[in-house]
Each structure stands twice: as structure tokens, then as C-alpha cells.
Design goal:
By secondary structure, the chain is an alpha+beta fold. The chain has a single domain, classed as Aminopeptidase (3-Layer(aba) Sandwich), CATH 3.40.630.30. It is built from 9 helices and 11 strands. The structure holds coenzyme A. Coenzyme A binds next to strand 8, helix 5 and helix 7.
Length: 235
């Protein structure tokens, strides 16, 4: 199982955009905000936004309903609610210091999800979205970087589920298979790998994807339990 990605490797992949590079940003303890260059102009990406801060920002109207796509979060209040949960991390890309043009949410799974059986060991990248006009500017990479600035990162298994019916195929002009490849390409540099599971919702479509990142301090016993749980079993 791969553990933490070497910062030097990540720094190389970030050198042409988003600044400062990850190695520098991560070395500054409790760094909560980074400037990020995009073709549309500068944004800042801010981690651990509080409900109060989020209330003061405006939510881009593009996070709504399009012809063949509906955003996962259509209301700013939903982000506020997630930011109020224990240990969660709501990371926002902000234009003009106050307009939300991208968001990522790291949170514990809902109690009715299989992964909640691992207690607080597992956290999910529960949402990741960039407003259509701001896409392909590496904002998603910056959001993932800031989501993973979590102080307990190495003690956790962070996972991500991609359900193809939630993807904006129209907005990105991609087939589901291409989109799936994009998600792998997006998450792999951060130490995520595709994992097999028999979880029924994930198995509904072959394009769906389950990816996980095992923290360096996750014990072998915990990894073992996780392996069994992926197939709905106990060791
Ligand atoms: C998925 C999503 C968050 C990506 O956001 P983004 O800011 O455009 O992504 P980035 O610019 O950081 O690009 C990440 C990688 O994906 C690739 N990519 C992004 N958009 C692409 C496109 N339209 N065509 C081909 N590749 C694309 C880029 O090549 C990039 O890799 P690179 O850095 O090596 O060049 C965005 O498309 C989105 O909001 N989609 C709707 C919500 C969604 O599907 N969320 C996923 C959770 S299920």
C-alpha cells in the first residue's frame, strides 16, 4: 500500500501553476490559505473554512442545475453545515476574496454507509466541484491539496467514491470512461489508488470508482479490517 506521497514529487507536479509549491506550503505549519494562479486570474484556496466565514461568501450561481447536470451542493448552507461537523475540512477556492468558485469537502461518512463501521478511521472526500467557467485551471488540484492539509491525515484512510451519474459529462465534454480516467489522474498524485470493493452502489456501473489513501500511521491491523470491509466481511 502506498503511503504519503513524497513532497518533492508533488512539488514537481505543481511547479508550473498554483503557488507557492506544495513542499513550501506544507512546511509552514497550520497554513490555511494559498494563492493559486489560474488562466482566469488569481484565486485563493482556503482550508478549514468555518460556518461563519462561509456565510460571508457568495456562492457562484453556476453551482446549480444545468441541462444534464445538477451540482451536489446547490446551497451555501450545505457547506456551512458540513463545516460545522467534527474534524471536517471545507476547502474553498475564492475569487475576489469572497466569491466561491470551487469547493471540496472532507468529512466522516454518514452512519448508514459501510465505511462508518471503521469509526473515525475513515474520512471521505465527500464533494469536489469547480464552477464550469473556472475549470481546467488546476483549481481541483489545489482543493485536494488543501483538503489533505488535515492534521490527522496520516492516521486516516481517506477515500473518494466517484459515481458516474453525478459527473458533469456535458460540462467537460467527456465520456464516462474519460471522466473516470480524469478522476484517477487527479487523485493518484496525492497517494490515492483505485481499490476493489463489492459495495453495491459502487458496483452498479463499471465506470464508478472507489479510491483510497492509506495514511502512513494506519496500523496493519486497521488496514486488514479495511480490506475485509471492502468486501462486506469481518476478519
Ligand atoms: C472534476 C472537477 C472538479 C475538476 O476540476 P478542474 O479544476 O477543472 O480540474 P483541474 O484543472 O485541477 O484538472 C485536473 C486534471 O484533470 C484534467 N482535466 C480537467 N478538465 C479536463 C477536461 N475538460 N478534459 C480533459 N482533461 C481534463 C486535467 O488534465 C488535469 O490534469 P493535469 O493537471 O495533469 O493537466 C470539475 O470538472 C468539476 O467540478 N466537475 C463537476 C463535479 C464533479 O464531477 N466532481 C467530481 C466528484 S465525483
Amino acid at each position: 500500500m502506498p503511503h504519503a506521497v513524497e513532497f518533492s514529487t508533488l512539488a514537481k507536479s505543481f511547479r508550473n501553476y498554483g503557488q507557492p509549491c506544495l513542499s513550501r506550503a506544507m512546511s509552514e505549519e497550520n497554513k490555511r490559505e494559498i494563492p493559486w494562479k489560474t488562466p482566469n486570474g488569481k484565486v485563493v484556496i482556503r482550508a478549514f473554512c468555518t460556518p461563519g466565514e462561509i456565510r460571508g461568501y457568495s456562492f457562484d450561481r453556476q453551482f446549480g442545475t444545468h441541462a444534464h447536470y445538477k451540482s451536489l451542493y446547490t446551497k451555501r448552507e450545505s457547506l456551512e453545515r458540513m463545516a460545522g461537523q467534527a474534524d471536517s475540512n471545507v476547502a474553498l477556492a475564492l475569487a475576489q476574496g469572497k466569491d466561491i468558485v470551487g469547493f471540496g469537502v472532507l468529512a466522516y461518512p454518514d452512519a448508514d454507509e459501510r465505511w462508518s463501521e471503521m469509526g473515525d478511521l475513515m474520512m471521505e472526500v465527500n464533494a469536489l466541484e469547480v464552477a464550469r467557467e473556472w475549470r481546467s485551471g488546476k483549481i481541483a488540484r489545489g482543493l485536494i491539496q488543501m483538503l489533505l492539509s488535515h492534521p490527522q491525515l496520516e492516521e486516516k484512510i481517506i477515500y473518494f467514491v466517484g459515481y458516474s451519474w453525478t459527473w458533469d459529462l456535458d460540462g467537460n465534454g467527456m465520456s464516462a470512461i474519460e471522466y473516470r480516467q480524469m478522476m484517477i489522474h487527479l487523485f493518484e498524485p496525492f497517494g490515492f489508488q483505485e481499490l476493489q470493493t463489492n459495495e453495491p452502489n459502487i458496483c452498479l456501473k463499471p465506470e464508478n470508482i472507489f479510491m483510497g489513501r492509506i495514511g502512513a500511521k494506519v496500523t496493519e491491523e486497521e488496514q486488514h479490517r479495511f480490506k475485509w470491509l471492502r468486501f462486506g466481511l469481518s476478519p
